[in-house]
């Protein structure tokens, strides 16, 4: 009724009388094409919180289809329609048959020709036209040519391997040189740090000079106080006198 295909399964419970009445009323309105009344009826059911279909008595599932399903019958407008068989004139039919026969004959001839050519080539390849002495001489000639090719390839390969070995040796030498330079730099840096620590060691406080260090610290009082005038001049010390300009 609502424009969709659906499979409806009725449960074993009895159908409500109001549900049947709702169905009958809805079908009656659809048959009379009263769309306004149908919308009014649906709006009334939605506002009242009830449904035309009683959920306790009917279980339904909607399935949409892009085309008409295969099990649906033929439409009433096409039920008794007999398709008209196209009428081909006699002359046209004979001409089409002649062209078709010519095409099939030519195709068969080309196919047979190709098959015969392949068979002849295969038969000629299997048959030998040389004597055993000629075959031996031809084999020796082929072996000489193959050996000359192998010698040329071996010479090229040996030259390539020699160049690659020289390049690899050069890369190894450069790597060793860079590694030695890096080690020398690290040793020089370590030596510089050790020398600096030796110089700083002279100012370290030890148990032998701790008394003199304490006396020097007490005698050299450091005053971190300072003052700033309106011009931004800084005067360090608590007891520093300001200069009168």
From TrEMBL:
Main location per the UniProt record: mitochondrion
Keywords: Membrane, Mitochondrion, Ribonucleoprotein, Ribosomal protein, Transit peptide, Transmembrane, Transmembrane helix
Keyword Membrane set for record: yes
GO cellular component assignments: mitochondrial small ribosomal subunit
Transmembrane segments: 15-31
Cellular compartments annotated: Mitochondrion
InterPro entries: Ribosomal_mS26
Pfam families cross-referenced by the UniProt entry: MRP-S26 (PF14943)
Protein family membership: Belongs to the mitochondrion-specific ribosomal protein mS26 family.
Protein name: Small ribosomal subunit protein mS26
